[in-house]
Amino acid sequence: MLADAGAHIVAGASTAKPLRRSRWVAAAALGLISSTFSTILSQLFAARIGRDAAVDWMTVAAIPAGDWAISAEPSWSAVLAGIAFHQWADFSWALVFFGVLGRWTADLRPLTILLLALPWAVFTSSMEWFVLVPLFPFWQPLFTLQQPYWIGLLVHASSAMMYPLFARLRWKSGAAPARDVRFTNAWTTGAFAAIALIGTIALIGRHGYEPRWVGHDRDADQTYIRHMTAHHVQGIELARIGAERAQDPHLRKLAMLMIASQTGENRIFENWWLSWFDTEMPDCSSEERAAMPGMLTPAEMRQIRTVASERFDAVFVDAMSRHHRGAVKMADGMWHSRGDPRLRIMAHAIRHEQQGEIALMQGTSGVAAVAMAIRNMLNDNVN
Fold first, then answer.
1. Domains observed in the chain
2. Phi, psi of 43 (to 5 degrees)
3. What is the rounded end-to-end Cα distance, in angstroms, of the chain?
4. Cα gap 351→345, rounded to integer Å
5. What local confidence, expressed as pLDDT, does residue 380 receive?
6. Can you name the residues that pair with 171 across neighbouring β-strands?
7. What is the pTM of this model?
8. Spatial CA neighbour of 343 closest among 273, 260, 278
9. Which pLDDT tens digit goes with each residue over 40-70?
10. I want to staple 276 with a disulfide (CB 3.0 to 4.6 A). Which of 27, 213, 306, 364 is the partner?
């Protein structure tokens, strides 16, 4: 009888349904959650640090799609392609962490996963920025030269912050340990609260009520915003000429990217000015414009409009490079100032972006593009 009872227990255990899901299934579910969370957070938070989310998504879309994605005004198709590619990348990294590396990670507790999240974000964002995008397999320098590394790190970090939920997703409904349920419930509540808070700030900010100015030199910050806005206006005008007249199709697309980037940045400047100073932004005088580094004279602008077609590309690249170097010098001054932190962060991105566009106009790619991007991001640029 004892033997029969033992056999019955063994048979029952062998036919019982497993309480845990496949680590691959759980990793796929987590990938959908983490990528969606980082997409929403990136979209809402971008303008708070001076980024135009639509332009950033368009740049991401250019990784697989190339010049097709680039236009003077980001199209819905390019934005959606950028979001889809980002979500695919985040989804893939979740599969790597919990699927490929599941022998070591699939049974970790939520808090342990959380402690590994930031190092994993550093690793994954570094792989994309330094290797996978500019070298193999995409060989696309635009992303690395256009966006400083820390932007990708922030996006990857927001995605990795959802990784502790894997410990709950690994179990079937009602089977997860109580302590993991408590932790993941609190973590999910915090994630929703973060989205609600940032979403509220973003909604209010769109109506001219960004969080107040917190710099140390009001006049210096106002001068920088006014001057960079005026500088961008001429840059947009010059880029429009390039988009119409450039003989090289890739150069025309780069000119469109410059229009999109600087137009988006000017919208942010205008919104910050209205939010912080509660007045219309005064225009720059002709004397101020003449003193700005890199600003072209009316005669130089006329020359670019009328130069012979066969000479246009070289003349345009030279003029736009001088103009960009002037903007880099202005942005570098703000980066090293005691201005509002948001202005300084935005200035760091502008100086990286415009130096990167100079390199792109010169055809820089591959390892040289990575080396150039690292220098642009780290070095002082005062020339």
1. 19-205 (no CATH), 218-378 (1.20.1260.10)
2. -65, -45
3. 92
4. 10
5. 75
6. 20
7. 0.93
8. 273
9. 999 999 999 999 999 999 999 999 999 999 9
10. 213
